[in-house]
Amino acid sequence: MPYKKTLQVILVLAIAGVLFSGYLSYYELFSPEGCTDAIVSCGDKGFTIADLPACVYGFVMYLAILILTAWSIIKNKS
């Protein structure tokens, strides 16, 4: 698979990951009932890493992948 096509596939997967983990993070952090109101259950609300739910770390990692991939696509456009 060509380099540019690979980056585009990674970008699409990163966008999907940011949307999904952002959705779960929003419900976990800002909804009074937690993920019980969400369409998808995000697990036990009691499980945290450094007082943050695991989905927040997924959001940060997917966001980093999204930014790096988009930057790489833009940089190699010329």
From TrEMBL:
Database matches in InterPro entries: VKOR_sf (IPR038354)
Transmembrane segments: 7-26, 56-74
Alphabetical UniProt keywords: Membrane, Transmembrane, Transmembrane helix
Record keyword Transmembrane helix present: yes
Keyword Membrane: yes
Protein name: Vitamin K epoxide reductase domain-containing protein
Lineage: Bacteria, Candidatus Dojkabacteria
